[in-house]
TrEMBL record:
SMART domains: YL1_C. Keywords: Nucleus, Transcription, Transcription regulation. One of its GO terms (cellular component) is Ino80 complex. It comes from Vigna radiata var. radiata. This is Chromatin-remodeling complex subunit ies6 isoform X1.
């Protein structure tokens, strides 16, 4: 035991002890993130956010995580092609269907009237003929 203490003192005096951090050595993942430590940003689930906040104390018309009601948008809604679902810059005056390109326009013009009425009914733009 006495010998061990003497050897340690000699090693320290001789400066044979390596520094604790070597700049050329690559840092391993287990050294960077010890067990139990989070790796980056911690995300809270919605239930945790709701429990942490006192949303019952807020006025009911104030928007928060609990109520999703919002005022109507100030921007006009996008016009969507009735056939493909893409954005539709064009509108067929004969059938009132919206279309995205010339191929869809050809399909629209070849559709029977009952199919056109079904597409318009899906969009709530159906014309009732008397």
């Amino acid at each position: 035991m006495l010998m061990k203490g003497k050897m340690e003192a000699e090693v320290v005096d001789a400066e044979l002890v390596l520094p604790s951090y070597l700049s050329f050595k690559k840092v391993q993942m287990y050294e960077k993130y010890p067990k139990g430590q989070a790796r980056g940003r911690h995300w809270k689930h919605l239930k945790q956010i709701i429990q942490a906040e006192n949303y019952q104390n807020y006025p009911p018309d104030e928007p928060n995580y609990v109520n999703i009601e919002s005022p109507p948008s100030m921007h006009p809604c996008k016009k969507i092609c009735d056939i493909t679902g893409f954005e539709a810059p064009y509108h067929d005056p004969r059938t009132n269907l919206r279309y995205a390109n010339t191929e869809v326009f050809k399909i629209i013009r070849s559709l029977p009237n009952e199919y056109v009425q079904r597409y318009l009914a899906l969009r709530n733009a159906a014309i009732v003929l008397k």
